[in-house]
TrEMBL record:
<dbReference type="InterPro" id="IPR011024">
    <property type="entry name" value="G_crystallin-like"/>
</dbReference>
<dbReference type="GO" id="GO:0006952">
    <property type="term" value="P:defense response"/>
</dbReference>
<protein>
    <recommendedName>
        <fullName>MiAMP1 protein</fullName>
    </recommendedName>
</protein>
<dbReference type="Pfam" id="PF09117">
    <property type="entry name" value="MiAMP1"/>
</dbReference>
<dbReference type="InterPro" id="IPR015791">
    <property type="entry name" value="Antimic/Inh_G_crystallin-like"/>
</dbReference>
<dbReference type="InterPro" id="IPR015201">
    <property type="entry name" value="Antimicrobial_MiAMP1"/>
</dbReference>
<keyword id="KW-0732">Signal</keyword>
<dbReference type="GO" id="GO:0045926">
    <property type="term" value="P:negative regulation of growth"/>
</dbReference>
<feature type="signal peptide">
    <location>
        <begin position="1"/>
        <end position="24"/>
    </location>
</feature>
Length: 102
């Protein structure tokens, strides 16, 4: 009988983990202004360096993004992107890294 109760509990836990991971905030960095050129998607928790600085789009879906003017999220946080709202900038940005708070 214990196995009958354990299997549904494990299934529910796995389902909760996978559904939560499917909706992560996303930072898209573009090489050129106006969302042009190459781009990179950053959606990993923790620190990430930003390779392109021409423009960006942010899709806040539960996690905030702390923006830094230095690589590896070092130094003082410069700006916080919201966890529940989108943002974008068509002109160049100076941010060198992001820390997505998960």
């Amino acid at each position: 009988m214990k196995r009958i109760f354990l299997v549904p509990a494990l299934t529910a836990g796995i389902f909760a983990l996978t559904t939560g991971a499917a909706y992560a905030s996303q930072y898209i960095a573009y090489e050129g202004p106006g969302f042009t050129g190459r781009s990179v998607l950053i959606d990993a928790c923790g620190p990430s360096n930003i390779p392109y600085h021409g423009s960006y789009k942010w899709y806040g879906d539960g996690q905030s993004g702390r923006m830094y003017n230095q690589p590896n999220a070092h130094g003082v946080m410069h700006f916080r992107l919201p966890s529940n709202n989108n943002a974008e900038q068509r002109t160049p940005v100076g941010w060198q890294s992001i820390f997505i708070e998960c």
